[in-house]
UniProtKB/TrEMBL annotation:
Pfam family, any one: Allantoicase
Species of the source: Nocardia aurantia
InterPro entries registered for this protein in UniProt: Allantoicase (IPR005164), Allantoicase_dom (IPR015908), Galactose-bd-like_sf (IPR008979)
Pathway: Nitrogen metabolism; (S)-allantoin degradation; (S)-ureidoglycolate from allantoate (aminidohydrolase route): step 1/1
Protein's UniProt keywords contain Lyase: no
Protein's name in the database: Probable allantoicase
Catalysis performed (reactions): allantoate + H2O = (S)-ureidoglycolate + urea
Keywords: Hydrolase, Purine metabolism
Length: 343
């Protein structure tokens, strides 16, 4: 398995389960002499300002460790490595990893490996790092400098944490862990939840257009802070409309939908509908065509009262939506299936 900068696999359309806005955290690293471990999961693309020096040298937007040395100044041993441990914002099945070495040209690690682990409860970070039952996700593989090194993962293990090892040392700008969210919903059981949220296990399966930004932004926690943190389509020049399809955390009965157009002032949709899709593929109207206002959180009741597994939001004709919330309750069958997946 090797990294490449040319491939654009389907897994890149899946959410980054480690990204900070989703709740990810870099909880432990054995070294961060030159640049902080927390940079690994920042949502924005890494930047660089040449000849910008701090007390520890050139400032890098990434995680950078010191140069390893063997005894008497010899080269490091073949198995020497530095390690960072990331708690995923949402547990899930990893389908692909991107190790981005942007701007690291003479100081990137020549090889990396990535492992996964399931952790119950809230043990200390050092305890997690010391565990010996990590499962390989990406075997030790070569990487290139100043590149987005892409690695597909062919495993169905659910993980809560990932471990990045760099062999033997160096700098990595970003670590992206793309996958299918599989959270533990047992604590909420039959309580109402946001069935569409990434942190509940919802995910975008398709959309008509992602010209300005990704539709998975719709399902992120918290409110957007700027226009670029939502989903915005290109301007349509035909008589059609844009849409996004979302697979819910499980079969559930929606009670309320929130369509948030915050920060979209002159480019919000004029109207929207919400359609529910049952397990057998048939459709039901959840929200009739409803006028939308700019920069507004629209909270709209749903009266259909039927279980669905997916929803489709249609916006007319185009524009931007910050967040989509589908508040409802999982069916008993869905709760049992989700519990079975965690056994």
């Amino acid at each position: 398995m090797s990294g490449t900068t040319d491939a654009a696999p389907d897994f890149l359309l899946l959410p980054d389960l480690a990204v900070r806005p989703l709740g990810g955290a870099v909880i432990w690293a054995d070294d961060e002499s030159f640049a902080e471990k927390e940079n690994l999961i920042r949502p924005e693309a890494p930047g660089f300002r040449p000849a910008t020096f701090g007390n520890k040298g050139q400032v890098y937007d990434g995680w950078e460790t010191r140069r390893r040395r063997g005894p008497g100044g010899a080269a490091p041993a073949a198995d020497d490595c530095d390690t960072a441990v990331v708690r995923l914002g949402v547990p899930g099945v990893v389908r692909g990893v991107v190790v981005d070495t942007a701007w690291f040209t003479g100081n990137y690690p020549p090889e990396i490996s990535v492992d996964g682990l399931v952790v119950d409860g809230y043990p200390a970070a050092a305890e997690i790092a010391a565990r010996t039952d990590w499962t390989p996700l990406v075997v030790r593989s070569k990487v290139s400098g100043d590149s987005a090194n892409v690695f597909p993962v062919d495993r169905d293990d659910r993980v809560t944490h990932v471990r990045l090892r760099i062999h033997p040392d160096g700098g990595v700008a970003r670590l992206r862990i793309h996958g299918e969210p599989k959270p533990d919903l047992r604590p909420v059981d039959s309580l109402p939840i946001d069935l569409a949220a990434l942190e509940s296990g919802g995910r975008v399966t398709d959309c008509s257009n992602r010209f300005y930004s990704q539709p998975l932004n719709l399902l992120l926690p918290d409110r957007s802070r700027v226009m670029g943190e939502g989903w915005e389509t290109a301007r349509r020049r035909d008589h059609g409309n844009d849409w996004v399809r979302v697979r819910l955390a499980g079969e559930g009965v929606p009670h309320l939908v929130e369509i948030d157009t915050s920060y979209y002032l002159f480019n919000s949709p004029g109207a929207a509908t919400l359609t529910g899709i049952r397990a057998d593929g048939t459709e039901i109207e959840l929200l009739p065509r409803t006028a939308l206002q700019p920069d507004t959180r629209h909270r709209l009741p749903i009266v259909a009262g039927e279980p669905v597994t997916e929803v489709r939001l249609d916006v007319y004709p185009d524009g931007g939506v910050a967040r989509l919330r589908v508040i409802g309750t999982l069916t008993e069958a869905a709760r049992e299936r989700l519990r079975a997946e965690l056994r």
